């Protein structure tokens, strides 16, 4: 792995950790800026580096570094209803970056589709995991609508705003990163 790749991965992990701490606890899943960081990771990194970034973030948190939301970490995080969303970051960023690689155009249309792919994967995996933890482990007996009210409806408007912001950030940073990285 090249030095520039390791540097970008480290910077993106740092951004993801910071965005994880900017949290508003509203229920079983807090509102954070993690999804903003994850979208930016998927926009700016290659599929391999996006996976490496989100995987390292997850591993660091699971071995005990307090980098998940609200400065939590450790293996007990797998029993939190929100853990499925963090787990989903790995395939979500990979598929987002893969889509952009395939279409090799940084047009807004492609960025929106790629961001939607990321968001859809994150919600599908995150809500499924959340429902399992709440209903099986915590015996909450939430039906489908209860799961949506706990993990989807309070977040979707914010995620649309974060998607718009991530596209804006990516459109500005991508040309700069390409210039700077090619000079290294």
Could you please describe the fold and organization of this structure?
Strand 1 (23-24) and strand 2 (31-32) form a beta hairpin. The protein has helices spanning 3-21, 34-44, 47-62, 83-103, 108-137, 144-151, 153-183, and strands at residues 23-24, 31-32. Helix 2 (34-44) runs parallel beside helix 4 (83-103) and helix 5 crosses helix 6. A two-stranded antiparallel ribbon has the order 1-2. The chain has seven helices and two strands; from the N terminus they run H-E-E-H-H-H-H-H-H. The mean pLDDT is 93. The protein has 184 residues and is an all-alpha fold.
Largest beta-sheet details: 2 strands, antiparallel
- Going across the major beta sheet, what is the strand order? 1-2
Tell me the series of helices and strands, N- to C-terminal: HEEHHHHHH
**What's the number of extended β-strand segments?**
2
Strand content: under 5%
Question: In a few lines, what is going on in this structure?
Answer:
The chain is an all-alpha fold and 184 residues long. Helices cover 74% and strands 2% of the residues. The longest helix is centred in the last third of the chain and has 31 residues, at 153-183.
